[in-house]
Write a structure and sequence with these properties.
This protein has helices at residues 3-12, 18-25, 29-37, 52-62. It is mainly alpha-helical.
């Protein structure tokens, strides 16, 4: 998943803010910002890698699945 596809996922799933997407994925809004921009504040030259488990969580949210308790 690229930063562009992550941002597209957020918008296509109706999350108007990063905070709403963060809540759905169980992460901080800052992490959502990092994944969307692909830029690290402390190391701008480092490539941001969106982990596979985040891409899978996005797919689960899109499919309407709830977390396993």
């Amino acid at each position: 998943m690229t930063p562009e596809s992550f941002k597209k996922w957020r918008k296509e799933n109706g999350f108007k803010s990063r905070a709403l997407a963060a809540e759905a994925l169980g992460m901080s809004p800052e992490t959502v910002r990092l994944y969307e921009t692909g830029i690290r504040r402390e190391a701008p030259s480092k490539t941001v890698v969106i982990p596979r488990h985040v891409a899978l969580a996005c797919a689960a949210v899109t499919a309407g699945l709830d977390p396993i308790e």
